[in-house]
Amino acid sequence: MSTPGSGSAITELVNLEVLERAATLAKQFSGARPFPHLVIDNFLARPFCAEICREFPSFVDDAAINEDGRVGG
Question: pTM for this structure?
């Protein structure tokens, strides 16, 4: 994978179909009401998403702490 400063890094991270629709998505964002917002399905490139999933630690119920400070899922 390229470093964030390299030219091809964005194409390794973001789904190419999203990049191709950038101008349309920008118009949708700026025209959204009641405030500018946008939902982009399949934003990340599949290989990058798979890499994130492999590297992210598994969920462990006994290590989970909720907003009340209690342990457990």
Answer: 0.61
